[in-house]
């Protein structure tokens, strides 16, 4: 296993260096041609003001492992994505965990059905416009890193809802996301500079109905948020609050 892990680390380093070299050469070439390189301070990942965008998402529940929770993705009466359903904490035989519902974007496929990753190296926050029911949710980001090959490897951050009729806008710095495996935080944290999928999950361990309406997911550049974790010797992690 140590040899396999080392090979994966080397492959990831080679891949990262290759992507950095490609971007650098492209920028130099465009600069030589006199083109101005402009980056927008925001980039929409998914804009649900276009109704067809909800077709890019799948719904997940604990029914895949024998649970009783239900969930669906529909258009709200205002034409936004509506994630709703009912969480059930009922345990059946041979089931250790239940009470889970979530949505996740489908990977974008390019030429030869190769998964296309969204480069977010220029940005430092995920922004979401939503309104919910007062329950706490998770924002889940899956990257294209070879160190995170399993579908249970995610970067997660809390999303708290106040309930009521008013829209909320939440900006979550990348440094607020922490790497998890099956919902458990890992001691060693990694950076991420691309997005393979993004989604929302509800795991507050409370039975009952829920609903969360979302207008968009996007990444933004605000310029003063830390983007990295600072690892300390205790195998715990703390965030580096220095400006990047």
From TrEMBL:
<dbReference type="InterPro" id="IPR039131">
    <property type="entry name" value="NDUFAF1"/>
</dbReference>
<dbReference type="GO" id="GO:0051082">
    <property type="term" value="F:unfolded protein binding"/>
</dbReference>
<dbReference type="Pfam" id="PF08547">
    <property type="entry name" value="CIA30"/>
</dbReference>
<dbReference type="InterPro" id="IPR013857">
    <property type="entry name" value="NADH-UbQ_OxRdtase-assoc_prot30"/>
</dbReference>
<dbReference type="GO" id="GO:0005739">
    <property type="term" value="C:mitochondrion"/>
</dbReference>
<dbReference type="GO" id="GO:0032981">
    <property type="term" value="P:mitochondrial respiratory chain complex I assembly"/>
</dbReference>
<comment type="similarity">
    <text>Belongs to the CIA30 family.</text>
</comment>
<feature type="domain" description="NADH:ubiquinone oxidoreductase intermediate-associated protein 30">
    <location>
        <begin position="46"/>
        <end position="214"/>
    </location>
</feature>
<keyword id="KW-0496">Mitochondrion</keyword>
<keyword id="KW-0143">Chaperone</keyword>
<dbReference type="GO" id="GO:0006120">
    <property type="term" value="P:mitochondrial electron transport, NADH to ubiquinone"/>
</dbReference>
<protein>
    <submittedName>
        <fullName>Complex I intermediate-associated protein 30, mitochondrial</fullName>
    </submittedName>
</protein>
<dbReference type="InterPro" id="IPR008979">
    <property type="entry name" value="Galactose-bd-like_sf"/>
</dbReference>
């Amino acid at each position: 296993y140590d040899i396999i892990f080392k090979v994966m680390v080397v492959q990831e380093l080679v891949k990262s260096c290759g992507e950095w070299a490609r971007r650098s050469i492209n920028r130099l070439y465009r600069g030589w041609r006199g083109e101005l390189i402009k980056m927008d301070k925001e980039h929409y990942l998914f804009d649900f003001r276009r109704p067809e965008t909800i077709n890019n998402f799948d719904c997940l529940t604990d029914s895949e492992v024998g649970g009783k929770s239900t969930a669906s993705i529909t258009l709200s009466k205002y034409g936004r994505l509506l994630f709703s359903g009912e969480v059930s904490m009922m345990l059946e035989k041979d089931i250790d965990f239940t009470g889970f519902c979530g949505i996740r974007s489908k990977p974008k496929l390019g030429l030869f059905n190769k998964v296309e990753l969204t480069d977010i190296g220029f940005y430092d926050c995920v922004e979401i416009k939503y309104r919910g029911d007062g329950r706490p949710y998770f924002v889940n980001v899956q990257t294209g890193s070879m160190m995170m090959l399993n579908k249970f490897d995610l970067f997660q951050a809390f999303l708290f809802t106040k309930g009521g009729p008013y829209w909320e806008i939440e900006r979550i710095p990348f440094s607020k996301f922490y790497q998890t495996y099956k919902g458990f935080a890992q001691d060693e944290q990694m950076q991420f500079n691309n997005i393979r999928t993004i989604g929302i999950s509800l795991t507050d361990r409370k039975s009952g109905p829920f609903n969360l309406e979302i207008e968009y997911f996007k990444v933004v550049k605000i310029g003063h948020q830390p983007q990295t974790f600072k690892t300390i010797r205790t195998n715990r992690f703390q965030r580096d609050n220095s400006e990047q």
